[in-house]
Amino acid sequence: MNDLIKKQLNDAQANMEKALSHCESELTKIRAGKASAGMLDGIMVEYYGNPTPLAQVGAINTPDARTIVIQPWEKNMLIPIERAIMEANIGINPQNDGAIIRLVVPPLTEERRKELVKKVKEEAEKGKIAIRNIRKDANEKIKKLKAESVSDDDIKVGEGEVQKVTDAYIVKVDKHAELKEKDIMTV
Fold it and tell me: Of 26, 110, 130, 175, which is least surrounded by CB within 10 A?
């Protein structure tokens, strides 16, 4: 296979890996009725005037399947952490006892589980669309290599390889979505 085509294939694979990672992180944010520190990813706390990730202003633990405990490094951070959690609108009210903040994750209703499964499917579809767009870009770049004296046969082989990589990443997205759905539907 031509070196220029290999480069395009490697670039496409790297971009698809990033798209898969993004999809995984979005799926992690969807809560499945079990407490996990990942539910708090993306929550920013005002720390001396700077927005700071919650994980950097305190220790986050999950002592059991329904509870998240946040132990701030500094006592004066209790109120800003509590405010940041409320503003993040994750559907859980923080309980501040003066030393730690406790989040009790409510059990999911059947209706809520079905809504979350729909959200998982939406996120998986976004991931697949991103991967398909990467495939399209890679194929266009490979076709443009004809100007650099790459043969039609090599271009066809390159496009075939891009399709194989695309199929593999779409299967990975489907597997992640399937695992998340199973996790959500498990009572």
Answer: 110
**Crossing angle between the packed helical segments 110-144 and 3-29, to the nearest 10 degrees:** 170
Distance, in Å, from the CA atom of 98 to the CA atom of 40, rounded to the nearest integer, reads 20
Question: Which pLDDT tens digit goes with each residue over 61-104?
Answer: 988 888 899 999 988 888 999 888 888 877 788 898 888 999 88
Specify the fold of 37-104.
Answer: Gyrase A; domain 2 (3.30.1360)
Q: Which residues of 9-33 are buried (b: 16+ CB within 10 A; e: fewer)?
A: beebbebbeebbeebbebbeebbbb
Helix residue ranges per DSSP H, the chain: 3-29, 78-88, 110-144, 152-185
Q: Which CATH class is domain 3-29+109-185?
A: mainly alpha
Would you list the domain boundaries of the chain?
3-29+109-185, 37-104
pLDDT tens for 133-146 read 999 999 999 888 88
Look up the pTM and report it.
0.69
